[in-house]
Design brief:
By secondary structure, the chain is an alpha+beta fold. The chain is about 25% helix and about 25% strand. It has an 8-stranded mixed sheet, with helices on both faces. The chain has a 6-stranded mixed sheet with strand order 9-2-1-13-20-19, with helices on one face. Helix 1 runs parallel beside helix 5 and helix 2 packs across helix 8. The N and C termini lie far apart (about 55 Å). Bound molecules: flavin-adenine dinucleotide (FAD). The site of flavin-adenine dinucleotide has 37 residues, from helix 1, strand 2, strand 3, strand 14 and strand 18.
Amino acid sequence: MKSAIVVGAGIWGASLALRLADEGWRVTLVEQYAPGHVRQASAGETRLLRCAHGSDDWYPRLAWQARDAWRGLEQRTGEELFVESGLMWFARDPDGWETRSAHVLERLDIPYELLDPAEAARRFPGLRGDDLAFVLWEPNAGVLRARRATQVTARLAAASGVRQVRARAVPYGRGAGVVADGEVLTADRVVWACGAWLPRLFPLEVGHIEVTRQDTYHFGVPRDWTTPPLPAFCDYDLSAYGHGDLDGMGMKITGDAEGEPYDPESGGRRVLRHTEEQARAYLARRFPSLVGAPVVFSQVCQYSLTRDAEWIIAEIDDGVWLLGGDSGHGFKHAPVLAGYVAEILDGTREPEARFGLHERQATRGLRTSGGTLS
Ligand SMILES: Cc1cc2nc3c(=O)[nH]c(=O)nc-3n(C[C@H](O)[C@H](O)[C@H](O)COP(=O)(O)OP(=O)(O)OC[C@H]3O[C@@H](n4cnc5c(N)ncnc54)[C@H](O)[C@@H]3O)c2cc1C
């Protein structure tokens, strides 16, 4: 029987462990805290699932397949994890990122519509869109209950035979092994899916992952500002995204502009005054009737950014793989990415060159923003 150790039970590691177990591997999942713990990127209350990725067509395919994969996970677990609310991209440039995205969606036969701002405001009462050229509407995009999905995935992995070890792992010399709180574990493959902890563990290999703090706000809004029926939204040029009130947690507003360098282990988890001001400024600009809404919930999370926002899937020694650099856009893809990585570990597929440990050119076209929150 083939064997694997996966280090890290965020959504990437937990999904991979589950997938490998489903395919008959003997799997050990090593995680230092409980799956869904507050420091991991996967513990955000919600994450968006969108297919638009500018001119790229690799990630849209993956995201579209992921929608079905999440539905499959829902059926296996009886949990509603994906809320298909639809998503609006607020486009200020008539010929910008959203237009390039629409061309790709058209080519891939992924449903979308172009709405004029008046129609968008009809579907999203309270939206101020007088600066918009159009709105790109993805009817099948939506919101994932992320922290819940991470816990559910880890639990299903355990039920599927994955051995779960609560320990902090370090590499075991050079080779397919780890030392987990003193215990040596070996396997045919080791995958380090350690999110923002990866650069500390492998400074030379992934020196180009930058970890930044990201503050998220949920505002108390009137009862009819719920998602659904309100859609999720992304404002690429203004670097903001969010959704209406879901599960009584308030309306989410997050900036995609990267915050200051951050340590996921020792960094405090209190949001900063200036990021609240930025979120409020966005609220006032796009949803003016919500000026003065109270913050009812907030979270500090971290991005693990590569320069080009492409992920890292790379073998650094025989059977030893790094899986990281999600660059703030990895949650939605996790169940399908797990299948892709499982094929690589099995030797039936080579990873795309884009995921290698080469020098990266700075670009942000895969992110949900092209500018700074203002
Ligand atoms: C504010 C914010 C908004 C985002 N929005 C979206 C979105 O809308 N859509 C989307 O698709 N994605 C989004 N993302 C990105 C998404 O959250 C990440 O891509 C995803 O959660 C990454 O998961 P991960 O498993 O790689 O990392 P993590 O969830 O951070 O998990 C890594 C795990 O590894 C464990 N670990 C680390 N080192 C060790 C060790 N030595 N031993 C044992 N365990 C270890 C950690 O404890 C942690 O649990 C967002 C991210 C942020 C921060």
